[in-house]
Design brief:
The structure is a homodimer of 77-residue chains. Chain A is built from two helices and three strands, in the order βαβαβ. With 77 residues, chain A is α+β, with helices and mostly antiparallel strands. Strand 2 of chain A pairs antiparallel with strand 2 of chain B, so a sheet runs across the interface.
Chain lengths: 77, 77
């Protein structure tokens, strides 16, 4: 059994209101020095050892991310 | 300017309906071999170089995660 992580983020050209809201709230709450925040999704998959990275990429592309507006990264952990 | 990543996940003992829904959908969609899926949040912060990891941990604990039901991990990228 292997653990694979998929991180899904909005493409850089897509506006991220959640990240912007956090970035704007930080100075009001006393946290300075944060220039930008982007918010995305983090998935942890427990997969059988015979599941290839290619299969996980297909899962990410089909189910976990919307490839029109999101990019994803796959990595073993 | 440094890039810091904060991953927020439900604590292991907290039920994760989103992850369960994905795990149950996968076999129906022809993807076998995935035993478990957990879903969480992924934040990418661009911070000034003088912002300590401790400060980012405080931001994560205050704003990005709900420490009652969620754990978080901070790492530089």
């Amino acid at each position: 059994m292997a653990r694979v992580v998929v991180d899904v983020m909005l493409k850089p050209e897509i506006l991220d209101p959640q990240g912007q809201a956090i970035a704007q709230a930080l100075p009001r709450l006393g946290f300075g020095g944060v220039a930008d925040v982007r918010a995305g999704k983090h998935f942890v998959l427990d997969v059988d050892d015979d599941v290839s990275e290619q299969a996980v990429r297909e899962i990410a592309d089909t189910l976990l991310a919307n490839p029109v507006i999101e990019d994803f990264e796959v990595r073993a952990e």
